[in-house]
Amino acid sequence: AVVSTQSTGHAMGDKIESKKIAKKANVNIIPGFLGEVESMDEVIKIANDIGYPVMVKASAGGGGKGMRICWNDEDVKIGFRLSKQEAKSSFGDDRMLIEKFIDNGRHIEIQVLADGKNAVFFPERECSIQRRNQKVIEEAPSPLLDEKTRRAMGEQATSLCTAVGYKSAGTVEFIVDNNKNFYFLEMNTRLQVEHPITEYITGVDLVEHMIRIAAGDPLSLKQKDIGINGWAFESRVYAEDPFRNFLPSIGKLTSYERPSGEHVRIDGGVYEGGEISIYYDPLISKLVTWGKTRKEGIDRMSKALDEYIIRGVNHNVPFLRAVMENQRFIEGRLTTKFIPEEFPEGFQGYNFSPVETKRLVSTAASMKLMESQSNSYSNTLNHLDLVVTFNEQNYHVKVHQSGNDHIVTFENDKDTQTVQNDWKVGATLVHGQVNKTPVILQVVKKLTLGYQLQFLGSKVEVLVRTPRQFELAKYMPVKKHTHSTNSLNSPMPGSIISVAVKEGDKVILGQELVV
Predict the structure, then answer these.
(1) Is the pTM of this model over 0.90?
(2) Where are the alpha helices (DSSP H) in 206-270?
(3) What is the distance between the alpha carbons of residues 448 and 176, in angstroms, rounded to a whole number?
(4) Which residues are catalytic?
């Protein structure tokens, strides 16, 4: 067993029971109803008594399932019904609770180890970047906390463990406002997905201690033994489409190459040729990086994401990579509303700056020169006049070789870019520099007159043509796309739970049809 008794683990793993225990242990809890809500009338009354917004959630839930934020009575009616259905389907337990929703809060959690008598806490993990209440990027420590708040949260977490005689590794989750007031959310009576970042900054093997405690050994760690060294990040790499509201993706991994390097760790169980199916969580891997500083940790994560080759299924690497470049993320100004606030229209892909665009165009021109040289019968080809088209913009450039460098000159402003790259024609990864700034590209597909590339996480088409090819392109017919609007296709495989309309009904925009 990994906890002292089955009843202890069940009590702390149950959101309703754990809140009752937390209140008795003098742990800060979110205002709400400490019990199970059963009927629609009851949940609406309680929601109004608490005051909107409220969170309706499954008592046995986890992973963002069975949870809805409600801003009014109508939201509660829909959210309570759907969350209850989802909880029953996912956990076999449709008991629901309701509590105040802390708007603009930060999700910060405390790792604990306890042997039933003694407990220690570890530096916090911040898990505020979430979609559909499920964590996407975690970091340790948090950019928000100071030592005083860290210790206060840790002491409440360990007092909770002591109160119930908890015996294992666990995580006590809190919601924290910008004034560093914190409130107990729940306790996870297991090892969390994001535990590696705690191991990185403390040097403690949590799994080893968890096993030793389960074997009956007393806790060997003292609180004074646990410090903070550096900064660690974890990106959850999912088989999902960030361009379609993060819908899960299924299929075969036709190509799969993991990044490597110093302080880069990947926990994952997939392999090239393997299937991503509808029957399991779409998590491909956990990508973890460490740095001496927060910036170094972010830079290392950016490089690892650039080198991560995944083909055959849609994945969220483009989104993860865009977050690494987001100024608000870099400054550490996080809340659980980060994604809807920074991407209010949904994720549309990375927005390239003029400087980044020139790096991409210059590297593509350099690649074209290398490709032309490999196809040439002589060794004298050392320059090309090209028109590079990206994002519906045409860039007239001249590229010539100077020693090991390629000098790219933009004709419109006479700007020059010095490119160095190690690309081998036909290879997937391109490592290089443009004006001494590192650039990493992936060649997703070779086009007839250019390349489909992955740059800063996003797939882009870059046409690289001679001036004559560019001139003749205007005579090529444009393929027309037709759309059918008289049918409804499911965006992904699933089960139909309920049908809200019947044949012959008239429907309006936004009306619920099928769940």
Answers:
(1) no
(2) 206-214
(3) 53
(4) 186
